[in-house]
Amino acid sequence: VVGLFCAAAETTERVLAERHLLAERERQRLLFEQVPGFVAILRGPDHVFEYVNDAYDRVAGKRGYVGKPVRAVFPDLEGTGLFEALDRAFATGEPYVARDVPLNLQRTPGATPDPVILSFTYQPIVDERGDITGIFIQGQDVTQEHQALAAVHAERDRQLMLLQQMPGFVAVLIGPNHVFEYVNDAYVDMVGPRNFIGRSVREAFPELEGQ
């Protein structure tokens, strides 16, 4: 042995860049976890899952998303038109916005599908060259809001039915302008047919002005 030959390369910049990329991905992951509603990132024309946040798991169930195309993950959504909407968003670069979409999601294998109502957006992801590389999904589970609204309407209908059954004429006025919200049939029979609902007493009865 007469000596040693040592070949080396400076990799500081590459290592720092990789560390920065990992830190940036972790920062984005933490940010997406704090976003209100569910979030997913799909890559490529087959819409392969790259990321989902915890809210996405809660809405659709734990399905082992990452690395799988959306059609394989959600066979229960075939025929809803959502896959075709993803394809169009990826092909055209135009966002797709859906509001109050009723769906049935099987959150647990073998379980009965749960009815949900979702509002969401498919936002195409564009790289620095202008090429579409994926789809960013962000949405809200609005099921409880719709259930609460349905309960309010049901209670209102029940109250109106009770008012309709009351003896004599009945009217319900709301607000400082005394706007008609409800009149029963006896009220209409008494004063004659008029456009009551949504009008104030002064608008419905101009002949009473000054009395």
Record the strand order, biggest sheet.
2-1-5-4-3
**Average pLDDT figure:** 87
Number of helices: 7
Order of helices and strands: HEEHHHEEEHEEHH
Any idea what the shape is?
elongated
Helix content: 25-40%
Q: What value does the Rg take, in angstroms?
A: 30 Å
Specify the biggest β-sheet.
5 strands, antiparallel
Q: How much strand content do the residues show?
A: 25-35%
Per DSSP E runs of 2 or more residues, the count of β-strands stands at 7
Summarize the structure.
Helices cover 37% and strands 25% of the residues.
Question: Could you characterize what this model shows?
Answer:
With 211 residues, the chain is an alpha+beta fold. The chain is built from 7 helices and 7 strands; from the N terminus they run αββαααβββαββαα.
Fold topology:
Elements lengths: L11 H23 L3 E6 L4 E5 L1 H7 L9 H4 L8 H11 L3 E10 L8 E13 L5 E10 L1 H23 L5 E4 L4 E5 L1 H7 L9 H4 L7
Antiparallel strand pairs: 1-2, 1-5, 3-4, 4-5, 6-7
What labels would you give this structure?
211 residues; alpha+beta; 5-stranded antiparallel β-sheet; 7 helices
